[in-house]
Amino acid sequence: MRPESNGLKILIIEDERLIAENIAINLEQLGYLPEWFSEDTDQLTKSVDPGNFDLAIVDIGLKGKKDGITIANEIRGCTNIPIIFLTSHQEEEMILKAAEAGPAAYLLKPYHISQLVASIQVAIRNYALTASTDSSGESDPQEEDQFIISDSIFIREKSRFIRVNYDKILWLEAKSNYTEIVTQNQKYLLSVTLKNLSQKINHISFIRIHRSHMINLDSITGFEGNTVFIGEKKFPVSQQYRENFFKKFNII
């Protein structure tokens, strides 16, 4: 089971040990949780579950029986996570071949840590655009700090992204032009209106009950009249949303 939220867990596949260690150190400095592999990369998917990671960084030019493209395709066969291809300028032909594997971003060697930060942002953005339930494919500039997919939302905190799973969210509350996401242990303030965010979070567990509130139905602990309770917190259900809200319940 995933934690409520944390720095992304990143899988590094690089057969040059020093490079793998350096990437891991940089990722830790950024607040991510890296795990790297530089040996027996041919057997990677047999010894590691890629589904335990949020993102993978894969060297295209692995020197084993399987190159990075093959490994990336095997990861894709196990789980759908964004993949960043690590490459050098000398591998232009392989880059063309790599495009068929659908990487979310590239990172050129040697790299600067700012380029690593940028490649992760691009990878998450591209992944969210393809995985999002919003099929328009359009991106609102004010939403570059959060990216939404089918079961979670990626939120930027300084130079890193964290992943907050929908099942950990209790409610969302409008704060003028911002939205506050409330979980059991934390609060996150996003620079997007609740109206825009609620349109993007097209998930069966979430429902709008007021112009200021959207709640997770699975978090409701009770209701009385037109008031909903999540723990000790009370939420009014405004007339505009009552009919749709109470349809969700079979009241005996």
Please characterize this protein's 3D structure:
The chain has 252 residues and is α+β, with helices and mostly antiparallel strands. It has two domains: 5-131, Rossmann fold; 141-246, LytTr DNA-binding domain (OB fold (Dihydrolipoamide Acetyltransferase, E2P), Beta Barrel), CATH 2.40.50.1020. The chain has helices spanning 17-29, 44-47, 68-78, 92-98, 113-131, 194-200, 239-246, and strands spanning 5-7, 9-13, 33-37, 55-59, 83-88, 105-109, 146-148, 152-157, 160-165, 169-175, 178-183, 187-190, 206-210, 213-216, 222-224, 227-230, 233-236. Strand 11 (178-183) and strand 12 form a beta hairpin. The longest helix is centred in the middle third of the chain and has 19 residues, at 113-131. The chain is elongated and about 65 Å long. Mean pLDDT is 84; it is low at 1-5 and 133-142.
